[in-house]
Amino acid sequence: MQFTHMIGLPVLFVGFMTSFSHPTSSWAGVSDEKSLKRSAGRAAPKASWTEGRFTVGTCADNIIKDHFMSNTLKQVLTIAGSDSGGGAGIQADIKAMSANGVFAMSVITAITAQNTEEVTDVFELPTSIIASQLDTIFDDFDVAAVKTGMLSSAAIVEVVVTMLAPQHVTNLVVDPVMISKSGHSLLRPDAVEAVKTKLLPLALVVTPNVHEAQQLSGIGIASLADARRAAKVIHGFGCRHVLIKGGHLLNERATDLLYDGRFFNVLKGEFIETRHTHGTGCTFASALAAHLARGRSVLDSAQAAKSYVTEAIRHGLAIGHGQGPTDHFYFLER
């Protein structure tokens, strides 16, 4: 039996759309009312068949719970700003994480009025609601990895650090978002210092682009040799790995540099000539976090994330009037 749609109804009623047209079609290994009765261990629920839908009442809630709770995904949290245009920020993070096989959760730090052309306004959420979001996530979910994006202010950086530190997050990916592709500042100057001194010491990986690496290190970057020097400076802030994204390097385009404090790995890739690259940094860091959550090494996760974002860029979407977003689900048939 093939389930093509599932909905949740009040009082734990669940309905399934099926390619079959008979009420005795099997459901989760349960083929008839007697089987439902035996599986539930109590009175059989009333089952009905209406327009291709087999509906089971609340007496079967144990069956429902046992069936669905057996299917789990690694849970990954993104802490970032919202992009109303959907191409970057929280929206891109959730898409990229989902596309790379994990369950995405979110803590929103700021709301941006944004499209493919520009960011017109930014509203930072109160630190109290950011703390509350973090508290509820860690109170309930088994968080396998965390990715941070737009943190906007020193106060937000500090509350995120305060809430994350006791959790001892093993896989923390810090994407030090500082400026939008349209040139709008997304991180206040005082927050840069807070990122360097308070957040980076918690990070497994920090993923700056060339501009961000220059801001963090104070070193101008025009080549891989420059990137190596900058990576050493950034590593000195306490993170375990530095991954400088080289999409903007003039000499070695689409070449990233990964540094673990001892060795450098050069990750070469294909440079795709396109303007539709909105959200690539968010997408890369989120894919990286997803693969770390699934148990891969930092190097393997970086390579997997790079391959994924390359294809997402290749299939970039020409929507809007500016820099369109990548296609996070390029692999789906349409």
Would you give an account of this structure?
The structure is a single chain. By secondary structure, the chain is an alpha/beta fold. It is about 35% helix and about 20% strand. It is built from ten helices and 13 strands. It has helices at about 35-40, 60-70, 90-100, 125-140, 155-165, 190-200, 210-215, 225-235, 280-295, 300-315; strands spanning about 5-10, 15-20, 45-50, 55, 75-85, 105-115, 120-125, 145-150, 170-175, 205, 240-245, 255-260, 265-270. The strands form two sheets. Strands 7-6-5-8-9-10-11-12-13 form a nine-stranded mixed β-sheet, with helices on both faces. The chain has a four-stranded antiparallel β-sheet with strand order 1-2-4-3, with no helix packed on it. The longest helix has 17 residues, at about 300-315. The chain is globular. The two termini are about 25 Å apart. Mean pLDDT is about 80; it is low at about 1-70.
